[in-house]
Design a protein that fits this description.
alpha/beta; Rossmann fold; Alpha-Beta Plaits; binds flavin mononucleotide; binds iron/sulfur cluster
């Protein structure tokens, strides 16, 4: 069994690890950008994906990966976990349908509410205690989902037609353009940046480089929010104007 995750602040990696610790301790877990990932996929019949929902859609980097490797999904048994801050409708279904189109057999889906990763948007922020409680609730939900999966009755969250309509009408239709291309909207405050390079080394799309001791962004951002949450100077913003609260999963465990 193989677990594949894409993550910005660690939520999707964490829930996948918790899930597989209970479901199959021998499973191999890797990130989407692992250099050997296609080799792992070829050698696995069962795959669990875990990723963050973005505007009731999948991150551009994940969509591109699935499409580029369209020949790898035939007859794979796939279970999809989607993490989200609040609502997605068909978070797991979006990826499931894409994989199904390429011949995968979808076993089910699981939606997990987790701390919000958009560090520069005040409206979405919760207290530390509330975020910790969310993570604990997600762990309990995983426990139940694993039990159902082991009994041959996997959860089907986000998979059916009603979920599709909820995701489409609830959000995707209005924000569709946001995830269709890589973003060129990442802003770095050069007055605050000290050139530490943390953002550049952590970016999954190599969208940031250091030039004359200052970070510079390009137009290949997949909006994971990793750099925004990690920058020690709070110098990076994307959708908002100012960093309000930074956090990665470790803060909530
Ligand atoms: C660009 C962007 C868009 C998002 N859109 C949604 C959304 O539509 N619905 C939702 O519930 N959460 C949304 N979120 C929140 C994340 O899905 C959520 O915090 C997720 O658990 C982050 O996981 P990660 O740490 O693995 O990246 C969005 C986050 C980002 C960065
Ligand atoms: S992490 Fe922040 S301070 Fe460090 S190089 Fe990037 S923008 Fe500059
Ligand atoms: S620039 Fe930042 S938000 Fe964009 S993909 Fe890279 S790490 Fe993620």
């Amino acid at each position: 069994m193989l677990g594949i995750y894409f993550t910005g602040t660690g939520n999707s990696q964490y829930v996948l690890e918790v899930f597989l610790k209970k479901y199959d301790k021998t499973a191999h877990i890797c990130t989407l950008t692992d250099k050997d990932i296609t080799h792992y996929i070829r050698n696995s019949e069962e795959i669990i994906f875990s990723y963050p929902v973005q505007f009731s859609n999948i991150p551009k980097i994940l969509k591109d990966f699935v499409d580029k490797n369209y020949g790898l999904w035939q007859k794979k048994h796939i279970f999809v976990i989607a993490t989200m801050g609040l609502f997605s409708g068909d978070g797991a279904g979006i990826l499931a349908r894409r994989l199904q189109k390429y011949g995968a057999q979808i076993e089910g889906g699981l939606h997990l509410k987790m701390p919000d990763s958009i560090a520069d948007e005040r409206a979405l922020k919760r207290s530390l205690e509330r975020n910790k409680a969310l993570v604990r609730a997600a762990e309990q939900k995983i426990d139940k989902a694993v039990k159902k999966l082991k009994c041959g009755d996997p959860p089907q969250e986000g998979i059916g037609f009603l979920s599709y309509m909820a995701g489409l009408l609830g959000q995707r239709l209005y924000f569709y353009h946001k995830t269709q291309c890589y973003s060129d909207r990442l802003k770095i405050d050069t007055q605050k940046c000290v050139g530490c390079g943390k953002c550049a080394t952590q970016c999954p799309t190599q969208n940031i480089h250091i030039e004359q001791n200052t970070a510079k962004a390009s137009n290949q951002c997949t909006m994971c929010y990793r750099c925004v949450n990690l920058c020690p100077q709070q110098a990076i913003t994307l959708l908002g104007k100012k960093v309000v609260a930074q956090g990665t999963i470790e803060k909530y465990l």
